[in-house]
């Protein structure tokens, strides 16, 4: 599994395709970067919205680095 460098602060509005469909959905948009509970803490999560249904899920942004699970675009 290849690790790609990603800056979590630049993920907003980026597009992602799930390698394996999540609830029959493959195409997602990062609608927001979830702010940490304290400003000193690093960003840990992003909100992904399914393009077709509009359903949103919050996931660790580091999951997007796993090329076996996610492709950018």
Describe the model:
This protein is an all-beta fold and 73 residues long. Helices cover 0% and strands 44% of the residues. It contains no helices and five strands. The protein has strands spanning 15-22, 25-34, 45-50, 56-60, 70-72. It has a five-stranded antiparallel β-sheet, with no helix packed on it. A hairpin with a 5-residue loop joins strand 3 and strand 4 (56-60). The radius of gyration is 12 Å and the shape is globular. The mean pLDDT is 91.
Give the strand line-up of the largest sheet. Answer: 4-3-2-1-5
What is the helix tally? 0
Mean of pLDDT: 91
**Number of DSSP strand runs:** 5
Proportion of strand residues:
35-45%
Radius of gyration: 12 Å
The ordered H/E elements are: EEEEE
N-end to C-end Cα span: 18 Å
Largest sheet: number of strands, sense, barrel closure? 5 strands, antiparallel
**What would you call the shape?**
globular
Structural class based on helices, strands and sheet pairing: mainly beta
Question: How much helix, percentage-wise, in residues?
Answer: under 10%
Low-confidence stretches: none
């Amino acid at each position: 599994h290849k690790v790609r460098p990603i800056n979590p602060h630049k993920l907003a509005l980026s597009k992602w395709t799930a390698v394996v469909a999540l609830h029959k959905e493959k195409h997602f948009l990062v609608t927001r970067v979830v702010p940490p509970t304290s400003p000193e803490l690093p960003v840990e999560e992003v909100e992904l919205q399914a393009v077709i249904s509009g359903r949103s899920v919050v996931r660790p942004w580091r999951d997007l680095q796993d090329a076996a699970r996610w492709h950018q675009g």
